[in-house]
Write a structure and sequence with these properties.
CATH topology of the largest domain: D-Maltodextrin-Binding Protein, domain 2
Largest sheet: 6 strands, mixed
Order of helices and strands: EEEHEHEEEHHHEHEHEHEEEHHH
Shape: elongated
Oligomer: single chain
Distance between the termini: 29 Å
Strand content: 15-25%
CATH superfamily of the largest domain: Periplasmic binding protein-like II
Number of domains: 3
CATH class of the largest domain: Alpha Beta
CATH architecture of the largest domain: 3-Layer(aba) Sandwich
Length: 335
């Protein structure tokens, strides 16, 4: 059985990793090899075209019997080939520089200290003036305020009467304190969520995407401004990603890199120190359903589908994915 290995125009890692002449590893390769072993199916690899349209045409024409790689289910190809059972859900997310909010926190704390000091001063002044005025209605408000402020500023708090039988003051003070606490809570909530809010808004912002890819279509759907990057398969270097490098070289111009979660996770965990400042956002902006294109009316399709489902149910796919990109993404193989 001839197995075409598809890597696309760029790096197909972690789904397909070329290790030598017709020698491969990766999520898609391991999932196929496990299924082939369980079916006792003999096969050999041939390198497929890096243009998916051409690779599908070759599959239709019998150059190979099945295509292995990160290929999404697509209705446009069903007239020429069949697809196996899906074996992975590939989330598409945004990667960008980690948000450092330490300076914002310090500035906010200083601002809150000034605000709280001012409110405390005004409350103390109001309480003292209110109590004195209620004790002697003939006293001038202006005189009371000026005298009380002088005592407050000179530190003579002991000379200011701060208790009253009036029911108004306790209620007023309680409402002011609750209002201040609510304001502080809302401001800090906005501070700690502002990073995610900024990240998720890609409308009218430039994002790095791979040339003619699903992330490109997704960027257009979200009204972003995509910057397409062509990745030459012959110039791929270990632990390096052209899209991430393009973003790092022009961080002021781009909001981030839009790509599949698995691919980005593979490079972020590759040990390359330059990627340590990058972070993947939690929100999924789109999903690709990956499956293997196979020749129309293939005699092994039904058997292969049963084996893929069995291996998925037995968590074998999940174990394979975890080997390359970690357990947090492995759940995408267990849908």
């Amino acid at each position: 059985m001839k197995v075409g290995v598809y890597t696309g125009r760029g790096s197909a890692a972690p789904f397909v990793i070329k290790e030598g002449n017709n020698k491969y590893s990766g999520i898609a390769i391991d999932i196929w090899e496990r299924a082939a072993k369980d079916m006792d199916q003999a096969y050999y690899y041939v390198e497929a075209e890096n243009d998916l349209d051409l690779a599908i045409k070759d599959l239709k024409d019998g150059v190979y019997d099945i295509l292995i790689g990160p290929i999404a289910l697509s209705e446009m190809y069903y007239k020429d080939v069949d697809f196996t059972q899906p074996w992975f859900l590939s989330n598409i997310k945004l990667v960008q520089e980690k948000y450092n909010n330490e300076n914002d926190i310090i500035i906010s704390l200083v601002k809150f200290i000034f605000i709280l000091t001012g409110i405390a001063f005004l409350m103390l002044l109001f309480n003292a003036v209110f109590i004195k005025k209620s004790g002697d209605s003939r006293l001038s408000i202006v005189k009371l305020v000026s005298e009380t402020m002088m005592k407050l500023l000179s530190g003579k708090l002991s000379s200011i009467k701060l208790s009253s039988s009036s029911r108004f003051l306790p209620i007023f003070n309680t409402l002011v304190i609750l209002g201040v606490l609510l304001y502080v809570f809302m401001e800090f909530s906005k501070l700690f969520t502002s990073a995610k809010d900024k990240v998720l808004n890609i409308e009218n912002k430039k994002v790095v995407v791979e040339f003619e890819s699903t992330p490109l279509e997704l960027a257009r759907k979200h009204k972003a401004v995509p910057q397409q990057v062509y990745v030459d398969p012959k110039k791929i270097r270990p632990n390096r990603n052209v899209k991430l490098d393009t973003y790092l070289q022009n961080k002021r111009d781009f909001v981030g890199v839009l790509d599949t979660e698995s691919s980005m996770k593979y490079y972020l965990n590759s040990g390359n120190p330059k990627y340590n400042i990058l972070n993947m956002n939690d929100k999924t902006l789109g999903v690709e359903t990956l499956a293997f294109p196979i020749k129309k009316y293939s005699p092994i399709l039904e058997k292969l589908n049963r084996q893929l489902v069995e291996n998925k149910d037995n968590k074998i796919h999940e174990i394979i994915v975890a080997k390359y990109v970690g357990s947090d993404i492995a759940k995408n193989a267990n849908f």
